[in-house]
Design a protein that fits this description.
By secondary structure, this protein is mostly helical. The chain has a single domain, classed as Alpha Horseshoe (Serine Threonine Protein Phosphatase 5, Tetratricopeptide repeat). The chain is built from eight helices and no strands. Helix 2 runs parallel beside helix 4, helix 4 packs antiparallel against helix 5 and helix 7 packs antiparallel against helix 8. The longest helix has 24 residues.
Length: 157
């Protein structure tokens, strides 16, 4: 009986070892997740071209909800999802994503402030838009596109 008990424990340990050995290591697991983040962003870009805007939002939402997503992919996912919301005139969700992005160090703050300014113009909030455009100008550094677009608001408010 004792021998049977020891044998069952050994069998249990060996089966668990086999199962655990089949799981990816932490390095492999993070590489697999990283590939999925990239694939989701690329697939979302394709869906945008096909005018499948809900598909874009769904794919990027998977990335954004992930706790393991690197900040670079989180920023790209937030901006792309916000741009999609903006494109379909869902300004509330677009603004929420742009504002989330501003809280991340890698965020392209000048471009996001420019987009927030454009969003506020669409909503008729020119005073709020002006503050975002000023931020975009201050943050634009060598980004002449952002600088030019932000300055154009003050030429023709």
């Amino acid at each position: 009986m004792i021998l049977r008990f020891i044998f069952s424990i050994c069998l249990f340990i060996s089966l668990n070892y086999v199962v655990l050995a089949a799981l990816p290591t932490n390095d492999n697991f993070s590489k697999l997740n990283k590939i999925n983040f990239v694939q989701n962003v690329e697939a979302a870009k394709e869906k945008f071209l096909l005018k499948d805007y809900q598909g874009v939002i769904n794919l990027l939402s998977i990335n954004i909800k992930s706790k393991d997503i690197p900040n670079s992919y989180l920023v790209e996912s937030l901006i792309n999802r916000a741009n999609t919301y903006f494109f379909i005139s869902d300004y509330k969700n677009a603004k929420a994503d742009y504002l989330k992005c501003l809280n991340i160090e890698l965020c392209q703050r000048a471009a996001v402030n420019l987009n927030l300014g454009k969003l506020e113009v669409k909503l008729g909030n020119n005073e709020i838009a002006a503050s975002y455009f000023k931020n975009a100008i201050l943050l634009s550094k060598n980004n002449f596109r952002v600088l030019s677009e932000a300055l154009s608001f003050f030429k023709n408010p």
